[in-house]
Amino acid sequence: MTEPTKNITVTGATGLIGRQLVPLLRSRGHSVTAASRDSGVDLLTGQGLDEALADAGVVIDVINSATPEDSAEAFFRQTAASLSAAAAKAGVGHYVVLSIVGVEAMAPKAGYIRGKLAQENAAATSEVPWTVLRATQFHELAEPITESLIVGDEVRAPAALIQPIDSAEVTAILARVAVNEPLNTIHNVGGPQKMSFSDMARAVLRRQSRTLNVLDDPSATYSGLNIDETTLVTDDAAELGTTRLVDWLARR
Ligand SMILES: NC(=O)c1ccc[n+]([C@@H]2O[C@H](COP(=O)([O-])OP(=O)(O)OC[C@H]3O[C@@H](n4cnc5c(N)ncnc54)[C@H](OP(=O)(O)O)[C@@H]3O)[C@@H](O)[C@H]2O)c1
Questions:
Q1: By three-state DSSP, how is residue 214 classified?
Q2: Using a 6 Å CB cutoff, which residues line ligand 1?
Q3: Domain holding 125: CATH number?
């Protein structure tokens, strides 16, 4: 059965997820307003927001902060407050936010993550029915994370698990969730494999034909955060992607 078409506004439309999501939704017949500062919509100032939400049945927030860690919290607080108020005013029927698995555990330690929680809460406490999709780290992050763990001529990996997922699969799940009935709760999605940071680094280095020594280092952090073994991975109820990191790396 063909799904009913909707008017959907995507904020953050030019980003990694937004630029995959907009054409995917359009290919299914939905009418999409692609909002970013390029198109005259600034969620920090609110400029262009009411116009971008006029007639929207669904809004999907995949905005991201380009500001440093200490101002990212304020960025998400302010942009989400503007968006939730504008969505309620416009009578939007479904408010969808893309967030990150493990935000509660990491929030006390990082401004960016506190900002993501504030972004989630803005949806959950708004007048608009909502869904928060929490995803694990995208495959695109495996290389930069590995690079960030290099100290001298070795990789010092946190003693923790990570569960990378293809951003295209996150996009597809987001597109499905957004056109379905609001869940009014959090839906977790993760990659097909939970692996140690050291195994992720070895996969990346193998693909790059580099031969650095990889060590598990209990004092190593993830972007400056001390994380527990399971902070970044999903529980058993989560929806899983199918593309393994090694296969994704191999086709790059
Ligand atoms: N990376 C991961 O592994 C991961 C995992 C789970 C969830 N997430 C979440 O996924 C979301 C999307 O990430 P992404 O990588 O697709 O982001 P991204 O590539 O950094 O794109 C950010 C988007 O936000 C827009 N933007 C920034 N400031 C704006 C403003 N003031 N007003 C309006 N638009 C603004 C940008 O467009 P302009 O600059 O043109 O305005 C761009 O379209 C993020 O919220 C992130 O937390 C990421």
A1: strand
A2: 12-18, 36-38, 41-44, 62-64, 66, 98-100, 116, 135, 137-138, 141
A3: 3.40.50.720
